[in-house]
Design a protein that fits this description.
The chain has 202 residues and is of the alpha+beta class. Helix content is 15%, strand content 23%. Strands 5-7-6 form a three-stranded antiparallel sheet, with no helix packed on it. The longest helix has 13 residues, at 94-106. It is globular, with a radius of gyration of 21 Å.
């Protein structure tokens, strides 16, 4: 999304593309879900055009059977609501940071934005210039903190679940999900960087 806003190209034979510009040693990013969400699932009939590299003419003409593929979308919980996320971004490069700031303020992305497939179009709006300085290493062990972004497991010594359990018993739908072995940083040819992998809490 950030690369689309700035108009940065993917990797080509003569340059690395934008992946190296947004690794965690250069850019800090946090994402916050701003609206309650729900998931919807349905099946889509896809045309079977043959195996990779071999195209069957009969299949392209629609004479072959269709393949039903299950699809899942995240949507706003309320039917009239919009799905909204907030990004917190801090980049070490002043030029990239200023260009990103100006483009978001003008709501002028170089490439169209989407959340997944091209038809899941998105829009952007600027919120604030304030720097949010809430680093995990500054947290005090005797205090409770509300964390509203994805957290690397390596950054946490332990998760205190008592507050979560109290909220769940009171009827609030708060969940902690653990995703394993996600690659947060990519190098050339979109290969995960070796030092980056790990587990994350949502």
């Amino acid at each position: 999304i950030l690369a689309a806003v700035l108009g940065l190209e993917r990797e080509r034979h003569d340059h690395d593309g934008y992946y190296r510009l947004f690794t965690r040693d250069k850019c800090e990013i946090a994402v916050r879900l701003m609206t309650p969400v729900r998931k919807v699932q349905f099946s889509v009939n896809y045309l079977d055009t043959g195996s990779r590299g071999k195209v069957d003419r009969k299949k392209i003409r629609g004479e072959a059977s269709r393949k039903q593929i299950p699809v899942e979308y995240v949507v706003a919980a309320h039917p009239s609501g919009q799905l909204r996320y907030r990004f917190y971004v801090l980049h070490e490069d002043d030029e990239i940071r200023e260009s990103l700031r100006e483009r978001v303020k003008m709501k002028r992305s170089v490439y169209p934005l989407s959340l997944g497939p091209a038809y899941c179009s998105a829009s952007i709006s600027f919120v604030s210039d304030d720097v949010v300085d809430a680093r995990l290493e500054d947290a005090q062990s005797d205090q409770t903190y509300w964390v509203v972004t994805v957290v690397p497991e390596k950054a946490l010594r332990s998760i205190e679940l008592t507050e979560v359990e109290k909220l769940q018993r009171s009827g609030n739908s708060l969940r902690i999900a653990r995703e394993e072995n996600l690659p947060p940083d990519f190098g050339p040819r979109r290969e995960p960087l070796p030092q980056g992998g790990g587990n994350f809490y949502f």
